[in-house]
Amino acid sequence: MSGSNSIDHSRSPLGDGPFALGRIEIVKKSIKNDPNFALPRLVVDDRNADINALLKADVELTEKLHAYKELRIIGGLLKEFYVNLELWELESCFYSLRNIHQKLQKNILAGQSRQFKQSVNDSVDHLHFQLIERVRDALDGFWKFGKDSITFRSSFTTESGDNEILYNEISECVKSHLFEDAVLGSNSSCWFVSSIESIATKNVVIQELSAISDKYLKHEQTILFFKKFLFSSDIVLFLEGSCIISERRTRTIDLTLDSFQNLATFLSGIVSAKDADLILQSIGNLLVNEIIKFVRQEAAQLLIVSQQRQRLIDINAAMADLSLNTAVHWCYDRSKLDVLLADEKIIIDLKLDQILHDELLKLRAIFESDNWRLPMLVENRENKCLPESKPEQEQDDDLDDEWAWNDDEAEKDDKDHVKEDVDDGWGEEIALDLEIDPLPKNDAKYFQTKREAHSKNESLMITRMPQGFKQTLINFEKGCDALGRNQISATYHYKLQLLLTSFMAMCMCKYTEWWQLYNDITVVISECSPKINLFRLHELNERFVRTHIENMKITAQQLIFRQLNEFSSEENRPQWEFTKKKLLPFVQESVIPSLLRLVNGGNRLSEFLDFTYNECLIQKVLSWDVISEKNSENIAKLINIIAAGTSVKELRDNPQHEHLRERLVITGKVVNAHLTDIMTMFSDGDFYLFTTDEIIQWIVKLFADTGLRRECIDEIRDVREENRL
Q: Pfam families recorded for this chain (predicted)?
């Protein structure tokens, strides 16, 4: 063992023994110190001594390298954008474009030339325009708008046939990236708009976005398409696959039902739920109103014919499903149509409404031509024209509330108005247009040839309108009989009043001569009563003629008041134009001819003249505190002029009117007479039409308080008292 492990020192070049290791160290040290074995020293160049310059150059090179790397990344994003654009991956295109803008915002083009910067910005701006074009192409692939049609498909395949484009994905992508800001404009905060550098490109993009929003997001064109159908009476809708078509046709009940069903199907089963909800926000209520209106108009068939009734039930269910499954912001109340379909009373009322509607349409048709104006003579039965009393039905509280005209209050207001004018004395005048237009010459000639026959109650000139309206009343009554009087007892009177009121309103717009309308209505009442309760029509007719007569009274009153005002201000040399140039022409050419043409016109004319003589003239003069001698002459002259200018031969056989004129003539003599002359007239019995107080009142107004005046007054009282006893 020891022999095998021993060291053979004879093989060592340094010898053997314990001094071998020491010799090795000596050799190493000698080699280290030997200059022949030393390495050559590095030579330092003074030109590279500026370490800061080197570091700066290193930074610049690093930044350029980083910028080139970023530009390389942008180049990759550009390639990625065009690849996605070719593949219709619009969502990826938006992200690529946004990443490009994020890179550019890091100012990586700071060290580049101005031309290079502009070229990059223009290229990126053009990407916006290209992407908008692709968005529009995609939406055009889903929506097709023809002249009279709209087609929608939820997906389409690209021309290469490799990709299927889904509407919901594109729609959500467009809304989230292009319309995150509600404001479209140069100040829009939407990154897609605000990141465009070129003003011209930005404006073009904004215009395109606005067009896309109106057409595809707000669906203005689609809404307008449906509104044309709903507002028109001759457009129907057809559904062919995913295309809804509008066509001008005469609407039948079946075609109208088909149209409503097709519209509901298009919104519920073809377009997306969100789009349907947005469209229904605009047309939903209008659609419901048109359906209800259609049901009311065609109730006679829709609610009776079982097949059409079932179709209406199906449409109601379809609208309810549309509201439940599609609409979020619009709710359909199906109970409105359910009530119409289930309530027999409503069905009867709807039929009555339809009868009323049809007759009103026929009345309007009569006025479309002037044939109704053709004159005809009928027997003047004025004594049979007016109802004797108000029917019992008219006393019903509900009808009074519904049709209360407050005639008594209106008449009271009119009288108070006139009385207030009389009490004004010389106060402020009412502003009226007193330019009186005389009747045309041919009209005056017509009056001269016809009014004598009218006044003698032999015949009456009317138009053809009474015949037309009598037929309307007959048709309305027949329709009510067909429905059953018991079924419509609660609403019959209301509908009749509505028919009468509507007829009167139409006539008031069409007649040029108010007196002719009054006569025509009077003939209708005389020939149709008492078979049909026309009290409301009589009431409207009387109110109508009363309004015209009251206006005449006000005009005459104001003209006389102005003439009396002239006496107050210029009693020595007053002007007479208010009487001679305005009052008399107005009475002679407008009032007298018009009132005499009325049925029972003599009494109305007598009433007007009574108001003119007493209320306007005599009572006004009596309201003065003092009547001067000169004004006594003026008033006497005024009375004589009015009396002469208002003489009507047709009223000469009217005792009441003749007494009225006699009082006026005597008053004209009294105001210009001496006290002794008045007493002579009293002794001769000229004051038989005057009361004692009236005679005394004139004496007090005309003469000073003297002993002679008191004696005359006492004598008048004594004589009248003796005669009374």
A: Dsl1_C, Dsl1_N
pLDDT for res 41 = 52
- Helix (H/G/I), strand (E/B), else coil: 141: helix
Q: C-alpha angle with apex 177: 171 to 182, nearest 5 degrees? A: 95
Token pair of 349 as six digits: 């009322």
Match 């269910």 to its residue by tokens: 317
Taking the C-alpha atoms of residue 453 and residue 340, their distance in angstroms, rounded to an integer, is 56
DSSP string computed for 513-537 = -HHHHHHHHHHHHHHHTTTS--HHH
409 has pLDDT over 80: no
CA–CA dist 237, 260 (Å, integer): 8
Q: Spell out the residues 6+ positions from residue 609 whose beta carbon is closer than 8 angstroms to its own.
A: 646, 648, 651, 657, 660, 661
- DSSP-derived secondary structure for 166-223: EHHHHHHHHHHHH-SSS--STT---HHHHT---HHHHHHHHHHHHHHIIIIIS-HHHH
Q: Measured between alpha carbons, how far is 549 from 556 in angstroms, rounded to an integer? A: 11
Contact 332, 288 (CB under 8 A): yes
| Residue 205 in tokens | 């993009």
**pLDDT tens sequence across 588-617:** 999 999 999 998 888 999 999 999 998 899
The DSSP bridge pattern shows strands 235-240 and 460-462 to be unpaired
The type of residue at 113 is S
Report the distance separating Cα 563 and Cα 69, nearest Å.
106
Q: Is residue 378 helix, strand or coil?
A: strand
AA letter at 250: T
| Contact between residue 476 and residue 356 where contact means Cβ atoms under 8 Å apart | yes
d(CA 312, CA 309): 5
> In the 8-state DSSP scheme, what is residue 286?
H
What residue ranges define each of the domains in the chain, with the CATH number in brackets?
A: 53-217 (1.20.58.2230), 223-342 (1.20.58.2230), 372-419+439-545 (no CATH), 550-724 (1.10.357.150)
Alpha-carbon span 317 to 97, nearest angstrom: 48
Instruction: Give the C-alpha separation, 214 to 226, whole Å.
Output: 16
Q: Answer for the pair 300, 285: CB distance below 8 angstroms, yes or no.
A: no
CA atoms within 13 A on the CB side of 319: 30
Round to whole Å and give the CA distance between 359 and 468.
11
d(CA 680, CA 559): 34
Q: Which residue has the tokens 């209360």?
A: 404
Separation CA 278–CA 699 (nearest Å): 87
- Given a contact cutoff of 8 angstroms between Cβ atoms, the answer to whether 91 and 68 are in contact is no
Token couple for 451: 């009014």
Q: Are 524 and 466 in contact (CB under 8 A)?
A: yes
157: β partners: 164
- Give the C-alpha separation, 567 to 339, whole Å: 73
Dist CA 353 CA 359 (whole Å) = 10
Closest CA to 517 of 312, 342, 367: 367
Reported as a single tens digit per residue, the pLDDT across 503-542 is 999 999 999 999 999 999 999 998 887 788 999 999 999 9
Give the SS3 label for residue 248. strand
The CA-based angle 535-397-490, given to 5 degrees, is 75
102 phi/psi in degrees, rounded to 5: -65, -40
Q: What tens digit of pLDDT does each residue of 430-476 get?
A: 233 333 333 333 333 333 444 444 444 457 889 999 999 999 999 99
Q: CA-CA distance, 47 to 53, in Å (whole number)? A: 11
